[in-house]
Design brief:
The structure holds 2 protein chains of 2 kinds. By secondary structure, chain A is mostly helical. Helix content of chain A is 63%, strand content 2%. Chain B has one helix at 2-24. Classes of the chains: A mainly alpha, B mainly alpha. The A-B interface holds A 96-99, 101-102, 162-163, 165-170, 172-174, 177, 210-211, 213-215, 217-218, 221, 287-290, 363-365 and B 1-4, 6-8, 10-11, 14-19, 27, 29, 32-35, 37-38. The structure holds protoporphyrin IX containing FE (HEM).
């Protein structure tokens, strides 16, 4: 019995140093818990540093000198303590401003947004828009202008009524101006100010902002008009599958049958409607800051479904600070706009130089009968049949 | 081309109109974050 007891004591005494070694050594013991040179170097290299160790270092009222004593007025908080509290959003701030974001003096969570906006976002815009223009130029040289294959008839048929063309041109002119002024704002600080100086950019930015903010309403009105007048012609059906299977006959010739709009145009239509609506909503949330919180709500719903997990991602951030809402709205607004602009580049190309006879549809509302028979055979036949029936009845 | 020209007129009308309405109701994006209500800006 004694021997067993002796063994246990021996094992215990041997184990104690091992257990002691398991207690983690404070990596910041040398600085008394403050950040180390290593932390600073890591941050400068852009490596993530877990700042949990200093988030709560915001002073200890318990350790404070009495307020009547010298240096006692901050309640035990040094200046760095106070700045940390402000930075990590735990400082007790009182202000007369009554905005939702008035009490956020330093928004630490916004740094990634700022860096993304002045670097990668500009690159996305350049590569996507420049790449699309390059591809279209290439397409023009390889495929050339899509011509009317058959003999022209000299007869025309009506394709769009005046109101449809009005809606289209309202949409087009507002979109183009929004695109130009939006890009002016996006590239202001990094490109235009260095190139033209603050004075010149300031004047330009003021004008550009006025145009962008106010023309947005014309775009939204036009989006509704276009949706209402064209949605019936853009519902997907069987002819679309056939059209897509043949790649629209873009290469290799031939014209797969199509109704009023072919599958390619339907894709453009729905891209304009869906992306255009999304741009409008995020734009409204930017125009009326802090009024509509689109992202926090969406993120919490997606987290509720476990959606980020489907892609092996961590939960999306929730709840969001007021500024974070605006930052997500800004990025979303910009990225979706850039994508739609790239799509619209292709549309403008095909609606003008890219295809013989297409522009007439929007300019005059009338198209060459042969063009209609080639590109929209089912629709053309129906219009011509209706016409003959009408004139025959007279 | 007439619908195009009318669209341009509508574009200007809607934009100026929208701006007018927002100004009329005293809305401005910049006031969402700042206010001169409680500060004395001049002597
Ligand atoms: C100068 C610029 C533009 C030109 C020359 C142009 C030209 C055209 C033409 C000729 C059509 C009729 C195609 C047909 O008869 O089948 C059309 C249709 C259409 N346009 Fe444009 N457009 C321009 C800008 C825009 C913009 C900026 C948008 C939207 C933001 C837009 C949205 C649409 C839509 C949704 C249709 C119907 C579907 C389609 O044909 O793809 N257009 N456009």
């Amino acid at each position: 019995m004694m021997r067993l007891f002796g063994l246990i004591v021996l094992l215990w005494t041997l184990a104690v140093p091992v257990i002691a070694q398991d207690v983690p050594v404070d990596p910041r013991a040398s600085t008394g818990g403050a950040q180390t040179l290593e932390d600073i170097l890591r941050r400068q290299e852009g490596i993530a540093v877990d700042d949990q160790f200093r988030r709560d270092l915001t002073g200890d009222p318990e350790a404070a000198a009495a307020t009547v004593d010298q240096l006692g007025t901050l309640g035990g908080a040094s200046d760095p303590d106070l700045w940390r509290a402000i930075r990590y959003g735990t400082a007790d701030i009182t202000t007369q401003a009554r905005g939702p974001a008035a009490k956020t003096l330093i928004q630490d969570g916004g740094m990634w947004w700022l860096q993304f906006r002045e670097g990668p976002l500009l690159k996305i815009a350049i590569y996507l828009l420049g790449g699309t223009l390059l591809l279209l130029t290439l397409f023009y040289f390889i495929r050339g202008r899509i011509r009317i294959d058959g003999e022209k008839t000299g007869r025309t048929i009506t394709r769009f009524k005046a109101f449809e063309r009005f809606g289209h041109w309202l949409l087009a002119s507002s979109f183009i101006l929004l695109g130009i002024t939006g890009l002016l704002s996006l590239f202001g600080r990094k490109v235009l100010i260095p190139a033209f100086g603050h004075e010149a950019f300031s004047a330009l930015a003021n004008l550009s902002k006025w145009i962008h903010n106010n023309i947005s309403w014309a775009f939204m009105v036009a989006l509704i008009i276009i949706f209402v007048v064209w949605v019936v012609h853009n519902l997907p059906d069987k002819t679309d599958l056939q059209w897509l299977a043949k790649g629209g006959g873009i290469f290799g010739g031939g014209h797969p049958p199509a109704k009023k709009f072919n599958a390619g145009q339907k894709l453009i239509f729905w891209a304009v409607i869906v992306l255009g609506t999304s741009i409008s909503l995020s734009g409204l949330s930017l125009l009326f800051p802090f009024e509509f919180n689109l992202f926090g709500h969406t993120f919490s719903t997606l987290n509720g479904w476990g959606a980020p997990g489907w892609f092996g991602l961590a939960d999306l951030p929730y709840p969001l600070a007021p500024q974070e809402e605006m930052q997500y709205a800004q990025l979303w607004h910009a990225i979706v706009s850039i994508i739609l602009t790239a799509i619209i580049f292709a549309h403008i190309y095909l609606g003008s130089v890219g295809m013989e006879g297409a522009f007439d549809a929007m300019a005059k509302g009338e198209v060459e009968e042969q063009w209609a028979r080639e590109h929209h055979s089912i629709w053309a036949q129906r219009v011509i049949d209706d016409e003959t029936r009408r004139t025959g009845a007279n | 081309m007439k619908p195009f020209l009318i669209a341009l007129v509508a574009l200007v009308a809607i934009s100026v109109g929208a701006n007018q309405i927002l100004t009329e109701i005293g809305f401005s994006t910049s006031t969402a974050g700042t206010s001169t209500g409680n500060v004395r800006l001049t002597d």
